[in-house]
Design a protein that fits this description.
It is a single chain. The chain is mainly beta. The chain has one domain: Immunoglobulins (Immunoglobulin-like). It contains 1 helix and 10 strands; from the N terminus they run αββββββββββ. Strands 2, 4, 5, 6, 8, 9 and 10 form a 7-stranded mixed beta sheet that branches. A 3-stranded antiparallel beta sheet has the order 1-3-7, with no helix packed on it. The radius of gyration is 21 Å and the shape is elongated.
Length: 150
Amino acid sequence: MKRLFIFFMSLMFVMCLAGCDNVNKDDFESFINVNKTNVKVGETIKITASIKNNSNKSIKIKANHTDVQKIEDIIMIGVFTEFENHDFIVNSKGGTLKSFKFKKNTLLEKELEYKVTSLNNLEIEAQFCFYIKNELIIIKSDIINIIVEN
């Protein structure tokens, strides 16, 4: 009985050590910035979205779709009209997903220039999407409202 107890305690100890390696959404910090929030039709907005790995270790991530060529492609920037659903639709070609190393304390950044073509107010949001092991991680940024003036 004593051996069985020691065996189960050892097994629980090993499981605790294996579980300490988990990474979750709280290990990442997302940012989104625009150069101006009041614009006129015809002006261009410069949007910058970034994500930082705040964990104390480098993390092996896998892309969530096959169109990813470099690690910065996990960042998707959406420009939506006011009150529109914020759906990030990815059309993947199929095939193997690329793996990358997201180094500790590293900031990944992606920029987009968007020309305003209508009088509809806009909402800007970024989504960061990738796999860690077999778990899909989706992190959304804050929403920035853009007012389009006459």
